[in-house]
């Protein structure tokens, strides 16, 4: 039987985090946007090695303890890794089949640069709300919107920020979202009670984000007719632009509406896109295969490369060539490598109880309602940074604060909401977190590039603290099980 490791001193526990931050700083300074291609992985493994060495040398933690936690943690993200591979398949097949080019072709003629950002944010919010998945939304409609924005001359950083803001709002408010379900179940709160209570912080954050995107869009009054004309001409000459290709997104939407698991949706959608590519874009598949004879062998080879490898199509326009290039499943391998390293670092911090030691210090400084919510927010962000995964952050945050909220007499729905405001939406802002890595890879925009423009994600944690300071709709639970509160009660009463 394994003995539970001794909780390390906080000053010892913080050392691996400091090492990680220092090495990440060096890596980013040396490699810039290429840091995710290997440098960040080394930084994570260095942080892990320091954690393991300190724990084994000072606190006599056995290696098997780390090994078991690593197996458990990586096993927990196995489905995520498969989803990433399917996202790579989907992004490649949707582009080569003509689905994304068709959306871009018509989208740039319909959408105005002035209203593009706010429209993109709202569209992604609706799709994510219906699908319950920010990842699926960004990998499908998000990629198309990025292409439309590129053609309209809108900054890719602003476009990515609008896409991510909308997608994470919808994900957060959807009863189909796995993170929403996880946050409510981890804290023991009814799902729809949790969603309704989140509206008090989520809606103001989203409205402010929309206002910012609207104002920013008004300044985008440049004449884009020439660029739009070049894009539409290049797309129409290269791809068979057809509304029939949009049957795939429609059928994908049907699968999502029927609550089919994300992994199955992405895989089936990729297969449907492959069939569309064979029907509408055989010349492109032959070009990819390097054999312009439309034989079964060349078509099969071209489709296989579309799914797993890199493609480069000559449209006659350099910027359009870059837009329609794909990387398939192979393009996700750096992300998967980074996720595995992040999971190893997070697992070592959990196994050694260093995470528990650090957060224990934070909890001791709680003095009132504002510091309670602020600490919950800070811990959620800290866990996203150190564990590299939003699911781990949600569960650990809920476990650490559940008893504190109960003793202080606050309803657990306050904890579930605060956890989502912190852990769920900030995960995409951290380059080595699974969400940050995935979205930067899918959109082709570095995390630190789009971070300043993800206004909803930046505002949500702050709004959680502001609402707590105002005491708006924050109730105390007066059950006999609750210990006398040491925190000031809200003016509101249930």
How far the N terminus sits from the C terminus, by CA atoms, comes to: 47 Å
| SS elements, strand count | 0
Give the H and E element order.
HHHHHHHHHHHHHHHHHHHHHHHHH
- Helical content stands at over 70%
**Separate helix tally:** 25
What is the radius of gyration computed over CA atoms, rounded to a whole number of angstroms?
24 Å
Q: Which structural class should the secondary elements be placed in?
A: mainly alpha
Assign an overall shape. globular
The biggest sheet amounts to: none
Poorly predicted runs are 479-494
Provide mean pLDDT, rounded.
83
Q: What portion of residues belong to β-strands? A: under 5%
Summarize the structure in words.
The model is unreliable at 479-494 (pLDDT under 50). Helix 4 (63-76) crosses helix 18 and helix 7 (113-131) runs antiparallel to helix 11. The two termini are 47 Å apart. This protein has 25 helices and no strands. The chain has helices at 10-13, 15-31, 39-58, 63-76, 78-96, 99-110, 113-131, 134-152, 156-173, 178-187, 191-218, 225-238, 247-257, 262-280, 282-289, 296-308, 318-324, 333-351, 354-364, 369-387, 390-407, 412-426, 434-443, 447-450, 455-470. The protein is mostly helical.
Question: Which labels suit this protein?
Answer:
mainly alpha; 494 residues; 25 helices; disordered C terminus
Question: Helices and strands in order, then pairings?
Answer:
Blueprint: H1 10-13, H2 15-31, H3 39-58, H4 63-76, H5 78-96, H6 99-110, H7 113-131, H8 134-152, H9 156-173, H10 178-187, H11 191-218, H12 225-238, H13 247-257, H14 262-280, H15 282-289, H16 296-308, H17 318-324, H18 333-351, H19 354-364, H20 369-387, H21 390-407, H22 412-426, H23 434-443, H24 447-450, H25 455-470
Helix pairs in contact: 2-3, 3-18, 4-18, 5-8, 5-14, 5-16, 6-8, 6-12, 7-8, 7-9, 7-11, 8-9, 8-23, 9-11, 10-21, 10-22, 11-22, 11-25, 13-14, 15-16, 18-23, 19-20, 20-21, 20-22, 20-25, 21-22, 22-25
């Amino acid at each position: 039987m394994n003995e539970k490791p001794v909780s390390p001193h906080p000053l010892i526990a913080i050392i691996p985090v400091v090492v990680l931050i220092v090495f990440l700083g060096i890596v980013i300074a040396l490699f810039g946007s290429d840091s995710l291609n290997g440098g960040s992985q080394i930084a994570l493994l260095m942080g892990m090695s320091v954690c393991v060495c300190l724990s084994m040398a000072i606190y006599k933690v056995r290696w098997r303890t780390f090994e078991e936690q690593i197996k458990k943690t990586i096993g927990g993200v196995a489905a995520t890794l498969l989803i990433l591979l399917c996202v790579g398949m989907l992004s490649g097949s949707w582009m080569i089949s003509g689905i994304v080019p068709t959306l871009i072709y018509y989208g740039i003629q319909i959408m105005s640069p002035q209203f593009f950002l706010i429209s993109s944010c709202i569209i992604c919010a609706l799709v994510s709300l219906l699908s319950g998945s920010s990842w699926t939304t960004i990998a499908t409609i998000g990629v198309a919107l990025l292409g439309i924005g590129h053609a309209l001359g809108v900054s890719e950083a602003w476009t990515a920020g609008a896409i991510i803001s909308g997608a994470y709002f919808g994900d957060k408010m959807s009863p189909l979202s796995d993170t929403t379900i996880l946050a409510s179940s981890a804290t023991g709160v009814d799902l729809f009670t949790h969603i309704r209570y989140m509206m008090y912080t989520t809606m103001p954050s989203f409205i402010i984000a929309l206002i910012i995107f609207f104002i920013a869009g008004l300044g985008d009054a440049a004449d884009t007719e020439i660029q739009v004309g070049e894009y539409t001409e290049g797309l129409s000459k290269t791809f068979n632009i057809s509304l029939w290709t949009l049957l795939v997104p429609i059928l994908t939407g049907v699968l999502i509406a029927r609550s089919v698991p994300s992994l199955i949706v992405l895989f089936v959608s990729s297969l449907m896109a492959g069939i569309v590519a064979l029907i509408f874009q055989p010349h492109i598949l032959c070009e990819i295969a390097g054999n312009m004879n439309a034989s079964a062998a060349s078509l099969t080879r071209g489709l296989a490369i579309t799914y797993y490898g890199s493609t480069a199509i000559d449209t006659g326009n350099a910027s359009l060539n870059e837009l329609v290039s794909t990387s398939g499943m192979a393009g996700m391998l750096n992300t998967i490598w980074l996720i595995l390293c992040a999971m190893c670092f997070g697992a070592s911090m959990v196994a050694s109880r260093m995470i528990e030691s650090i957060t224990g210090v934070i909890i001791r400084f709680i003095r009132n309602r504002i510091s309670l919510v602020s600490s919950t927010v800070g811990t959620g962000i800290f866990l996203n940074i150190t564990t590299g995964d939003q699911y781990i952050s949600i569960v650990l945050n809920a476990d650490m604060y559940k008893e504190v909220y109960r003793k202080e007499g606050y309803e657990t729905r306050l904890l579930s909401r605060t956890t989502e405001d912190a852990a769920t939406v900030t995960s995409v802002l951290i380059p080595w977190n699974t969400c940050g890595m995935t979205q930067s890879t899918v959109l082709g925009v570095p995390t630190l590039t789009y971070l300043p423009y993800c206004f909803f994600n930046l505002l949500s944690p702050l709004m959680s603290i502001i609402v707590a300071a105002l005491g708006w709709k924050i109730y105390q639970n007066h059950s006999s099980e609750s210990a006398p509160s040491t925190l000031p009660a809200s003016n509101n009463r249930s």
